[in-house]
Specification:
Blueprint: H1 15-22, H2 24-32, H3 35-38, E1 48-52, H4 55-69, E2 75-79, E3 91-96, H5 102-111, E4 117-121, E5 134-137, H6 150-162, H7 168-179, H8 184-187, E6 192-196, H9 200-215, E7 219-223, E8 240-244, H10 251-256, E9 261-264, H11 269-286
Parallel strand pairs: 1-2, 1-3, 3-4, 4-5, 6-7, 6-8, 8-9
Helix pairs in contact: 1-11, 2-6, 2-7, 4-6, 4-9, 7-11, 9-11
């Protein structure tokens, strides 16, 4: 039996998301080539906080783990409303696609002049550039879909390249992922648990959010080693445990014993996230949902004064 997903059904739904997620290899290449912009990021040895909301927070988690693991300096990732920025940071990075998120702008105004602030945004016309000391603009990665795909991963590509990483394999793997058929078992699952280790824990959080936003799905995210300390109780036939990046020994067997589907590939975590983007889109379409305009969400959270 052919278990591939038939593309084209409800293809008009999520048209922006489809175009944007498929453009990721090209936007990653552009970000990698932005060496001048990368030089605006914190120097080696500096104590850094990266702050964002939602998707940007999870991308920050990935960057923080990568930077510390590379020996570049203490790096913390915070959601904007819970960021303790009175610590002795040498620089603060504010990551926001729209440049209009209320909590991010409030932080920029509050810490202005007390610590160097670096902004990363997809919209150069937003208020953010006027509130920070250094700005990195990624307008080619900005999006029309409410559900983020390429801005988040492109920002992470730039951040990873600034750490000296070679992303050529990740880009090639993303192209392969975009060209392949999807497994119907992944699209039709009842529930998803995403697992990550180190920097891919941030990607697991983002994968769960993306599936939830796009298709109103039941999703969770955990550190891979923590999964067996309780959360594995949710695993069952018809459900998916999806690991990004390196996995601990025995986890595949433990999931198999529950009857759940275990999904894992030995590819770069960002390329694997592209697979999640594709599944999220097709799952939304199968349910008659439009991830460009998901329920209860807007492109930017702007709070009343």
């Amino acid at each position: 039996m052919d278990k591939g997903v038939t593309m084209g059904e409800n293809a008009e739904l999520g048209a922006f998301m489809a175009a944007e997620l498929h453009s990721q290899p090209e936007t990653w290449e552009r970000a990698v080539a932005m060496t001048e912009a990368q030089s605006l990021l914190p120097a080696d040895g500096e104590r850094v906080a990266i702050v964002g909301c939602g998707t940007s927070w999870f991308i920050g988690q990935a960057y923080a783990a990568l930077r510390e693991n590379a020996g570049k300096g203490v790096t913390d990732a915070f959601t904007a409303t819970e960021a303790p920025l009175d610590r002795d940071y040498d620089a603060v990075i504010l990551l926001t696609r729209s440049g209009t998120t209320t909590e991010i702008l409030e932080i920029a105004e509050r810490i202005r002049g007390t610590v160097p602030v670096i902004g990363i945004t997809g919209d150069p016309t937003s208020p953010l550039p006027g509130l920070v000391d250094r700005i990195i603009e990624l307008p080619f990665a900005d999006e029309q879909s409410v559900v983020q795909t390429r801005f988040a991963t492109t920002a992470l590509a730039l951040l990873r390249a600034s750490l000296g990483e070679d992303l050529s394999a990740a880009i090639a793997q993303a192209r392969s992922v975009l060209a392949e058929d999807l497994d119907a078992d992944l699209v039709e699952a009842e529930q998803y648990s995403f697992l990550g280790t180190g920097w891919t824990y941030g990607l697991a959080n983002e994968a769960a959010l993306k599936m939830r936003e796009s298709s109103q799905s039941w999703t969770e995210a955990y550190y891979a080693m923590e999964y067996r300390h309780g959360p594995i109780a949710i695993a069952a036939p018809g459900r998916v445990t999806w690991a990004l990046g390196q996995t601990p020994d025995g986890i595949a067997e433990d999931v198999a014993n529950t009857g759940a589907h275990y999904e894992h590939r030995d590819i770069d975590g960002m390329a694997e996230l592209v697979r999640v983007h594709r599944v999220a889109l097709e799952r939304a379409r199968a349910r008659g949902l439009n991830p460009d305009l998901p329920r209860n969400l807007t492109r930017s959270v702007i709070l009343d004064a």
